[in-house]
Amino acid sequence: MNSQGQPSQGQHRRGQLDGVEDTGLAADQLSDQERRKRSFGLLAEIMRPVKWQFSSAAVFIVIQQLATVVGPALIAWAIDTALPDLIDGDASLAILAGIAYLATAVLRAITTYLGTWLTTLAGQKVLYGLRRRIFSHTQRLSLGFHERYTSGRVISRQTNDTESLRELLQTGLDVIVGAPLLMVFTAIAILSMDWVTGLLMLLMLIPGVFLTRWFQRKSAEAYRDIRTHSARLTVDFVETMGGIRAVQGFRRETENDERFAAVGLDYKNAALRSIRIFGIYQPSLKVLGNLIVAIVLVVGGWRVLSGQLDVGVLLALVLYTRRFFQPIDMIASFYNSLQSAVAALEKIASLLAEEPTIREPAHPVALPAESELGGVGGTLEFHGASFKYSATGPTVLHPLELRIPGGQTIALVGQTGAGKSTVAKLVARFYDVTDGQITLDGVDLRSLTSQSLRDAVVMVTQESYLFSGTIAENIAIGRPNATREEIEAAARTIGADAFIRRLPQGYDTDVQTRGGRLSAGQRQLVSFARAFLADPRVLILDEATSSLDQPSERAVQDGLTTLLGDRTALIIAHRLATVMVADRVLVMHDGRVVEDGTPAELIAAGGRFAQLHRAWRESI
C-alpha cells in the first residue's frame, strides 16, 4: 500500500496477473459443470468433420488389441500342445503356431501404423481448423473485448492451448479406446484360461482403483495450477517485450526480472508438485503390478506342481497379468495430458463463446450513392446520442444533438477525457451508442454492414501501426485493388513521396516489424496515405499529427486542405495548427459540446477555445 492506502503499482500488477484466467469474460460467467459441458461440446464440434478418420482408427485399434491378446494364448498352446508333438517328431503344430504368432505380430504392426497415421492426420486437420477459427473469431471481436483481454492471453490460446490439444487428438484415441479394450480382452482371456487366477487379479485390482482415483483428484488440481501459471508467464513476457521501449526508457529491467522470476517460481513449484504426485502414483502402480505377478507365479506354480494347471497356461497367465497393468500405466501417464488438454479446451471454448458487441444488422441498409445526395456524401447526425463504456459506469457522452454536413471539416478540441475520442469511436462504430442514434447520410450506423461502414468511414490514430511488408503494400491496405500509380499519387498528395523515394528500395522497401525501419513521423505519413487512398466519405484523424515534426505537419496540412475539401472530416488534435484548417470547431467538456463555431468566431467569443488559442500562440 502507498501512503494514501491505495494498492502500490507492484500490487496492482500482481493483481492483474492473478486475474489472468478467463473467468473475467462476459461469456464465461458459468459454473464449472456448464463450462465443462461447453468445452466438450466444442470438442465434438471440431471433431465432426474428421469423424470417419477417428472411426476408422478406432476399428484398427480394436484389431490391434485383439492381435495383442492372442499372442500369449498362442504361446500357451504351442508349449502345451505343439511342443509335445515336436518332441515326438511331428513339427507341423509347432510350425503352425510360429506362423500364427508371426501373423498376429504383422497384423498388430500394420493396424498400429494405420491407426497412428489416421489419428495424426485427423488431429492436424482439427488443429489447423481450430487455429484459423481462433484467429478469425478474435480479430472480429469488438474493440471493447481487445481493450480488456490482453494480447498475451490471446497468444496463449492460439499457441499453448492448441498445442495442449495436440496430444489429446493424436494419441488420446489409442489410450481412451485401446487401453480399456486391452484390459477387457486380457481379463476375458485370463478368466477363460483359469478363473482362480482371474479372481486373484480382480481382487488385487481394488487397491489400484483407489490409487488411481487419488491420482486423478490430485493431478487435476496440480494441472489447473500449471495452466494458470503458464498463462501468467505468457502474459508477463508478451507485455514486457511489447513495451520494451518504456521498460528500457524507465530502467525497469531489474524490477521486471524480479517480477518474472516470481511468476516463473510459481510455475516451477506447480510443475514440481505435479511431478511429485506422478512420482508417487506410477511407482506404486508398478509395485502393485509386480506383486500380483508374484502371487500368480506362486499360486500358479503350486497348481502346476499339483497337476491343476499346465505350464504353458501359467506362462500365458504371467504375461497377461503383466500386460493387464500396462493400460492402467498408460492411462495414468496420459491423464496428465488429458487434464492439460481439458483446461486448454475450456479456455478456448470461453474465447470462442465471446460474442462481438458490434453485431451485423439483421436487415442491412445500403448507403445512398453520392450522386443521389447531390454529389457530396458524409452527412453525420447525432440524435440524442449518449454513451457509457459499461452498464454501471459513468456517462462519458451526454445526449448529443449535432449535424455535420457532408464535406465539412470538424475539429474536436478539449481537455483529456472530455469525450473527443469517444465521439470518434462511435462514428467509426467501434462501439454502439447507449441511447439515441448516429446516422450517416440518413442511415443508422447500426443498419450498415461492417464492410459498408469500413468503406465509408476511416480512422487514423496516433499509433500509425504498419504491418510487415513493403511501404506500397501498407498503403494499399486502404484499397487493395489500387494500382501502383494510385498508391504513389496518394503518397505524393500528403507529402510522403519524397522520403519514400529516398529509401533504398523506394516504395518496395520493407518496413520491418511494426514499421521499425521508419521514424514515427514517417510511419504516420504512410498511414495517412493509406487512409487517403481508401477515399472514404468520412475521415477521422484522432491525434494523428502528434508524431509529426513541424515540417511534416505543414506538409500534412497542405494535403488536408486539398483532400478534405469534398469529404467530411473529424480532426481531434491538441496542436491548434492542425485544428485551424477546420471549417468548424466543437469544444467539448465533460462529455458535452460547450462551444460550436468557426475558429475565428470562437476566438472572438473569448471562451474556452480562445483560451486554448492564446496559450498556443504564446507557446510558439
UniProtKB/TrEMBL annotation:
Residues 380-615 form the ABC transporter domain. One of its GO terms (cellular component) is plasma membrane. Residues 1-20 are annotated as: Disordered. Residues 1-10 have a biased composition (Polar residues). InterPro entries: AAA+_ATPase (IPR003593), ABC1_TM_dom (IPR011527), ABC1_TM_sf (IPR036640), ABC_transporter-like_ATP-bd (IPR003439), ABC_transporter-like_CS (IPR017871), P-loop_NTPase (IPR027417), Type_1_exporter (IPR039421). Keywords: ATP-binding, Cell membrane, Membrane, Nucleotide-binding, Transmembrane, Transmembrane helix, Transport. It is found in: Cell membrane. Gene3D superfamilies: ABC transporter type 1, transmembrane domain, P-loop containing nucleotide triphosphate hydrolases. Residues 57-340 form the ABC transmembrane type-1 domain. SUPFAM superfamilies: ABC transporter transmembrane region, P-loop containing nucleoside triphosphate hydrolases. This is ABC transporter ATP-binding protein. Belongs to the ABC transporter superfamily. Lipid exporter (TC 3.A.1.106) family. The chain crosses the membrane at residues 57-79, 91-110, 172-191, 197-215, 287-305. It comes from Gulosibacter chungangensis. It is a multi-pass membrane protein. It holds the Pfam family ABC_membrane.
